[in-house]
Design goal:
Radius of gyration: 21 Å
Helix content: 40-55%
Shape: elongated
Number of strands: 8
Number of helices: 6
Strand content: 5-15%
Strand order of the largest sheet: 1-3-4
Order of helices and strands: HEHHHHEEEEEHEE
């Protein structure tokens, strides 16, 4: 399962890198389009080559989360095929937390750090799955705006994504941020599970102030 998570992360990152490349190519092409000089209003371009990579990014993001959910079975004996919110008003990963809470009193205490990790990041995880669902299930892009030619600035701006009702970001920057988050979350998720197999695992900072997992038995 760890190997499958790693492959999924590679694919998420591949879509991110492809999007960066395609975005730059499209901006370069649109910037030299003579038709833009003939308009008096801003023009919006929804280029499918770019949006296919955005869809792929969030789809593989969700795949990674589902594989993390499946990683509970070998250690705790609970199976979840997906990283589900559960019932109405649930948070992302709530079904996993419920299963961990229902384990025996000798095992449950060893799951508290994992439960806290899921709860702490549930809002962000839910947002990324929501963005994925807009593409996959509803074929909508309400949260995304395409390339925009600005008449005022004579520039082509890359697509943006709505982070929430009050905030937006360029898609390429948002992808970079979420790639970093997903890698960190996945690592911490798996290491938190595996740390139950090694009694002296602990989290600490090194001399460069980078956080890492350590064991007195096996080192970093």
């Amino acid at each position: 399962i760890i190997g499958r998570v790693a492959i999924a992360l590679y694919k998420v990152n591949a879509h991110r890198r492809n999007y960066h490349r395609i975005k730059d190519q499209i901006i370069k092409k649109l910037s030299t389009d003579p038709n833009n000089k003939k308009t008096n209003i801003d023009i919006l371009f929804n280029k499918q080559d770019a949006f296919v990579e955005i869809e792929g990014f969030f789809t593989k993001y969700k795949t990674t989360l589902d594989l993390l959910a499946q990683s509970l079975k070998p250690i705790y004996g609970v199976y979840h095929p997906t990283c589900s919110r559960g019932k109405i008003d649930g948070y992302r990963g709530k079904e996993m937390v419920n299963s961990l809470n229902n384990l025996s009193q000798t095992v449950k205490p060893h799951t508290l750090d994992l439960q806290a990790l899921i709860k702490r990041n549930a809002t962000n995880l839910d947002r990324q799955v929501f963005l994925r669902d807009q593409f996959v299930h509803y074929e909508e892009m309400k949260e995304f705006h395409g390339f925009r030619y600005s008449v005022k600035n004579k520039l082509v701006y890359p697509p943006i994504v709505l982070i929430n009702q009050h905030e937006s970001a360029f898609v390429h920057e948002y992808m970079d941020e979420q790639m970093d988050f997903l890698l960190t979350f996945s690592t911490e998720f798996l290491v938190t599970i595996l740390s139950n197999l090694i009694g002296d695992m602990y989290l600490a900072q090194d001399k460069d102030e980078n956080w890492g997992w350590y064991s007195k038995t096996i080192g970093k």
